[in-house]
Amino acid sequence: MTEPRYLAIAAELRRRISAGELVPGAKAPSTRGLAAEHGVATATAAKALGVLVQEGVLHAEPRSGTVVAGGPGVKRKPAPRGRSEELTRGRIVRAALEIADHEGLAVLSMRGVAARLGVAPMSPYRHVASKDELVVLMADAVYGERGYPAQPPSGWRSRLELGGRTLWSLYRRHPWLAQLGPVNRPLPLPNLAVHAEWALSALDEFGLDAAELCDLHVLFFSFVQGIAVHLEREQQALGSSGLSEDDWMANQEPALAAIVGSGRHPVFARMLTTLSAEGYDLVLDKVFELGLCSLLDGLALRLEGR
């Protein structure tokens, strides 16, 4: 019978540790990295890492991800299985956040959380009913990481600037957060409501009716979320392809050269030629600031003359 792929990947990692290629304290390969290296799904790679965590060969290190616990014959003692009384919902959420922040939301699983905590696979279900419920708890926890001053800055624009930058900072810290769902299916999260109230109170001074107030808030929130979506997508692209942004662009040069040379898109061609000669890096933080300023300029023209 053919050995399951996740066991083969786990065996290869053990070999690398035994050979000294991965020393104690070294960061283990990421789930995405393993998936790209072995040509498997991220879930398979996560299962391989989970096996080694349960064995004590790897362990979770706060803010560092999964690291090597020891060399040949040196293992950390795994946490006893089945002792779910030691678990709390907060511990489960924190472990899940570490996985999602380092590996992406697609990699997150209840089994992976259990492995990170060193408990039996079914133990987290005593505190959280499903992955979907866990994601909701994670999102609410993240939105609660940042709040607002009791005394707001003067002027609607200053308040919206602070609100936009606060949300952006959360998406920056937790790139998966922008992937949760469309704005027409908002999550009823108490901590997300804090950010909504801040933005709505800034717009409310214009005396808008409820529908327009809602529409403008959706526009504002969608702008921040829409830029932030690319944070996680870039991580996914890097993990699935193994190519950096520069490497990927280099691979596109023949196709781009054909478009530029066709003569059908003169402005596009001029822009690409100039950027190539002068050097250019797409920085999402700059794009966010440009978009926020432009959006608020437009709102000022629309609302202040009412």
Automatic annotation (TrEMBL):
Which terms in the Gene Ontology molecular function aspect does this entry carry?
A: DNA binding; DNA-binding transcription factor activity
One Pfam family cited in the UniProt record for this chain = TetR_N
Question: What keywords would UniProt list here?
Answer: DNA-binding, Transcription, Transcription regulation
Q: Which residues cross the membrane?
A: none
What are the residue boundaries of the HTH tetR-type domain, all occurrences included? 86-146
Region: Disordered; residue ranges are 63-86
Write down the DNA-binding region ranges: 109-128
Per the record, the GO terms for biological process are: negative regulation of DNA-templated transcription
**What is this protein identified as?**
Regulatory protein, tetR family
Which organism encodes this protein?
A: Amycolatopsis saalfeldensis
